[in-house]
Amino acid sequence: MGWCLGIGHNYYGIFLWLKRSGYMLNSIDWAEMPPANGSLIWLKCWNWRSSGIRLPRTLSLGQRIRADLAISLMHSPELILLDEPTIGLDTLLKIKFRGILKTLNAVYGTTVLLTTHDMNDIEAVCSRVIILHRGSIAFDGSVSDLRRRVTNETEIRLEFSDMSAQQNLALFPKELVTASVVSPAEIRVRFRDFEIPTHRVLQMAVQASALESLAILNPSIEEIIAQIYTEHGERP
């Protein structure tokens, strides 16, 4: 197992290594690449292109981050440690980055330990979440467990194209769900999914007359984590 930690932005290494290996970044034949080489997988996924060896100062922050990650994958490590890896990446690159991490884990069995303050990274990539508070573990479990840790209720918002909210209340059995009229054109439905499955509530909802939109409302990961810290005595 091999990994790179604390890389000092020496990007000549990856380009020199590719050149010595007989690969030119502008004319790579990916079919001939060694399948187990993590750096080549990474460069292919990023669609990396270069006119040759470049000075580190000529690379953008996003390019430097991509180069760092390519170097760290050079030896196809079993474990990758990433600290705030999506800083400096634009929205599309963040989405691609998360997809690559999921592929490395699912296809190659690579374990990814991700330290981040970007909650979107957590939801998109992580199967297990650990929240630390003052050196102690405040939570350890899945994202779904994290949501249930704060609330076991699901809320659905229904909006109507007319003023028929009141008459549509009868669709929802009072013994299983709590339905309330927010406005003449909107209903909020709350229920516990261990008492009645979500799909059953949705089946009831789509029978509503003049239904214009439907949304399942969940607290954001930021709100959930903030509540956990509040429970441990932290103030917003």
Supply database-style keywords:
236 residues, alpha+beta, Rossmann fold, Alpha-Beta Plaits, 2 domains, 4-stranded antiparallel beta sheet, two-stranded parallel ribbon, 9 helices, 8 strands, 36% helix
Rg, Å, rounded: 24 Å
CATH topology value of the largest domain: Rossmann fold
Q: What's the story with the biggest beta sheet?
A: 4 strands, antiparallel
By DSSP, the count of extended strands is 8
Q: What level of helicity do the residues show?
A: 25-40%
Secondary structural class: alpha+beta
Determine the number of helices (DSSP H or I, runs of at least 4 residues).
9
What is the CA–CA distance across the termini?
A: 42 Å
Tell me the β content: 15-25%
Name the CATH superfamily classification of the largest domain. Answer: P-loop containing nucleotide triphosphate hydrolases
**Overall mean pLDDT:** 75
What's the order of the H and E elements? Answer: HHHEHEHEEHEHEEHEH
Task: Provide the CATH architecture of the largest domain.
Answer: 3-Layer(aba) Sandwich
Cα shape: elongated
Widest sheet: strand order?
6-7-5-8
Commentary on this structure:
It is a single chain. The protein is of the alpha+beta class and 236 residues long. It folds into two domains: 12-126, P-loop containing nucleotide triphosphate hydrolases (Rossmann fold), CATH 3.40.50.300; 152-218, 2-Layer Sandwich (Alpha-Beta Plaits), CATH 3.30.70.920. Helices cover 36% and strands 21% of the residues. A four-stranded antiparallel β-sheet has the order 6-7-5-8. A two-stranded parallel sheet has the order 1-2. A two-stranded antiparallel sheet has the order 3-4. Mean pLDDT is 75; it is low at 1-12 and 15-37.
